UniProtKB/TrEMBL annotation:
This is Class I SAM-dependent methyltransferase. Pfam families: Methyltransf_11. SUPFAM superfamilies: S-adenosyl-L-methionine-dependent methyltransferases (SSF53335). Residues 44-138 form the Methyltransferase type domain. It comes from Natrinema longum.
Length: 202
């Protein structure tokens, strides 16, 4: 799917995703907190969606969120306002960020590399805007290391991608390893379904 097709897909479900935010927080909140609570300085949240990471950015001095869907960004704005958090939002394609190089101390992204049409290009853009000595933090769903779950993901992968623009059985660690990013730490949870990755610019 193209970036615009992805935008349309998520625009169609933005209201529904926002309605399920409390339930999603019960499931994924602990993983988001663990991965992002130490995101420091000026933080860029790539593919921020409805803003589900914002409440965990307690050490950030400035928050910038981008997403390709206007509808998702509208809910992200509500989240910022509800948290009384000072931040800015922009409609932007992760594969072509409109920020100068070395703009952010920390770049984060959650459950998003599976949706980028060209994830390598997107990750290199994230690397470009991260300052030397900064960090990139990813929280991704991944293909399980439990055979029955992996089989189910493989079986549903094509139809899920056609409807949601999400590669259900992708391997985020393999994707990051194809870039110049230096992987500092990885963490797998929930039978390998959730992967946390900490990386630094080369």
């Amino acid at each position: 799917m193209s970036a615009e097709e992805i935008a349309d897909s998520y625009g169609d479900v933005a209201d529904e995703l926002a309605r399920w935010s409390r339930l999603e927080r019960l499931f994924a909140g602990r993983y988001r907190r663990r991965q992002f609570e130490n995101a420091a300085g000026r933080v860029l949240d790539v593919a921020c969606g409805t803003g589900r990471n914002f409440r965990y950015l307690t050490t950030a001095t400035d928050v910038v969120g981008i997403d390709i869907s206007d509808e998702m960004l509208a809910h992200a704005r509500d989240e910022l306002d509800g948290l009384a958090l000072d931040g800015t939002l922009h409609r932007m394609d992760a594969q072509a960020l409109a920020f100068p190089a070395d703009s952010f101390d920390t770049v984060i992204s959650s459950f998003a590399t599976c949706t980028f049409p060209d994830p390598i290009t997107a990750l290199r853009e994230l690397q470009r805007v991260c300052k030397p000595g900064g960090q990139l933090l990813f929280l991704e769903h991944s293909r399980s290391d439990v055979a029955p779950l992996a089989w189910l993901q493989d079986w549903r992968a094509e139809s899920h991608y056609q409807t949601a623009g999400c590669q259900l059985n992708h391997e985020p660690l393999e994707t990051v390893q194809k870039t110049e990013l230096v992987i500092e730490k990885t963490d797998e949870q929930l039978f390998g379904l959730v992967t946390g990755i900490e990386a630094t610019p080369p």
